[in-house]
Amino acid sequence: MKKWLLRIFLGFLAVLLLLFGVVFLRSLIPVTVQDQELQLVRANIPQGSNAFDVLQAATNNLWWPKDQERQISDLAKDTNWDDVLASTVLASNRETLAGWDAAVKLPDLQVPEVPTADDLLPYLSEWKKLAMLAEVRENVLLHNGQDKEAFDQIVNHVQLGQRMQNSHGVLIVYLVGTAVHAMGLNQMQHWVGKTHLTPDQLKDYIRQLALDPDAEGAAFANTIKAEYQLQIKMLDAMRQGKITNSDPSDYHPHPSRLLPLFNFSQTKALFAEEDLKLVKATPHHFNEAKLPDVNSRSSVAAMFLSGNGIGQILYYMTLPAIIPSLAKKSQSDVQLQATRTILALRACQLTHGKLPPDLNALVPEFLDAVPVDDFDGQPLRYSAEKKIVYSVGKNLKDDGGDDRNSEADSSQRHLDLVYKFDF
């Protein structure tokens, strides 16, 4: 009986050793990585021509008292308006805003390459503060009846946000640029019904804000390429054992060379395939993109039997962060198109005394063509009765302008992207 048990044990041990050997060999097999289209070419910008350096210098003079952050935020949003505080903010940030204006005039903005995955990019929070100061100044001008000067600055605000999006930075840089861009567009939507701009002036702003799909696509593609380069730096640091767990709450896996858990080239290929799909999707509308399902993944057993368990875990961890970024790009495009549409509606109302029955009536007097919803490739939707312009959003369904608030069930929130106007 003991001999049979010994044989069973030895047989089981042999199977385990054989399985370990197979997995170990699989962990050593290199794969060819097709990432030529993910190489990011950085521009050689002459000294003094990079708006990034100008913005950095501007933040050195930033006046931003912590005990008044809430009040400054209210001024930027045009709520709880305080003339005295607004004047103080502008007077105390005269040099800072001069730096913002100088950056606006420079056509090139390129951020430094991210050296490591631990770089926190502190300049991003400063960009947001600069944009809020610009909002305060725009609001002061509008409260003082200087509508054209304000709208000229808002256009500069929007365009600087676009350059931030295409500053060859990683995804978080693109998202902050998108936020700055959105802040300017929100200003136009908020004020267009309250200004005394003429229809011709509004039509000029519509032209200045014309969407360039190629430029917007290139901005997002460059972002994904920069993100890919950072991902590979992280993987290479892991391979070399340079990633540490100095913060106990921040877990980093440590693949041992004695265990078949991590294959650098296989992992790199997974990231390259994912990112290349995003880059190839940029010239198309959101509904045409063929992206990985963030909820679909291999079983734990299959991942570890592959010989690249940690590599696959890292890949699946990044999917929920990187894949939805394409929807952010579409949302940014949609907000720009919706803002142009609202400007056209206001110009039409001022010219003809009423809102048009549909957006086709704006063509060609106010728009060259009805703006397109980047989510489904169809014209933007509009309701004169509800006073909204809207997109179907990422669920690709026309819900009639339904943008249910946070009190609704999570699966039913923000079904459409809705942009309201009040004129």
Describe this structure in words.
This protein is mainly α and 423 residues long. Helix content is 54%, strand content 3%. It has helices spanning 2-28, 51-59, 69-76, 83-92, 94-105, 123-143, 147-165, 171-191, 199-208, 213-239, 264-281, 300-305, 309-322, 325-352, and strands at residues 381-383, 388-391, 417-420. The protein has a 3-stranded antiparallel sheet with strand order 1-2-3, with helices on one face. Helix 9 (199-208) runs antiparallel to helix 14. The longest helix is centred in the C-terminal third of the chain and has 28 residues, at 325-352. The model has no long low-confidence stretch (mean pLDDT 89).
Descriptive labels:
423 residues, mainly alpha, 3-stranded antiparallel β-sheet, 14 helices, 3% strand
Summarize the structure.
Helix content is 54%, strand content 3%. The chain contains 14 helices and 3 strands.
Computed structural class: mainly alpha
What does the radius of gyration come to?
26 Å
Query: Termini distance?
Result: 92 Å
- Beta content: under 5%
Q: What spatial form do the alpha-carbon principal axes imply?
A: globular
Tally of helical runs? 14
Q: Describe the sheet with the most strands.
A: 3 strands, antiparallel
Helical coverage, percent range: 40-55%
Counting DSSP E segments of at least 2 residues, the number of strands comes to 3
Instruction: Name the strands of the widest sheet in spatial order.
Output: 1-2-3
Helix-strand topology string: HHHHHHHHHHHHHHEEE
**Unreliable stretches:** none
Mean pLDDT: 89
